[in-house]
Amino acid sequence: MFNKKSIFTFLQAQVAAFVGGITDYGIMILLTEVFKLHFSFSILISGTVGAVINFSINRFWVFKNQSGYSSHINSQLFKFALVVLGSISLKSLGTLIFQKAFQIDYRIGRVVTDLFVSYGFNYPLIKYWVFKIKKTDVVKSN
């Protein structure tokens, strides 16, 4: 079921998610704590910045769809933008629920929410929808 390549790809994707996520989380804290924005707005802004970083790392390192696939970048960007919109919405809602319903600090609620969103929503959609390589693309590159 799992081979070395799929495990390595998963681990690379986790590095991309971690770098994008740390950037996202750090900007959220900065905007909320220093600039006093509500955390929902901070998540929107920070999530966008983190998404740009995550997309770039995924495209050029994890799934290596940069060379020979330039015609697909618009499709990938559109699909990735939809995933990001869903992800930011889920993170904002989840963080708000943890904070309002359970009185859990937004920083902790965000980390817990991120774990569920990252593994259950982002990774499957990014791997199997955004950066899915079609068999015709593999033939073209050979």
TrEMBL record:
Transmembrane feature ranges: 7-31, 37-57, 77-98
GO biological process: polysaccharide biosynthetic process
Any one GO cellular component localisation term in the record: membrane
Main location: membrane
Topology term for the membrane: Multi-pass membrane protein
Sorted UniProt keywords: Membrane, Transmembrane, Transmembrane helix
Compartment(s) where it occurs, according to its Swiss-Prot or TrEMBL record: Membrane
InterPro entries registered for this protein in UniProt: GtrA_DPMS_TM
Start and end residues of each GtrA/DPMS transmembrane domain: 18-131
Protein name: Polysaccharide biosynthesis protein GtrA
Originating species: Flavobacterium seoulense
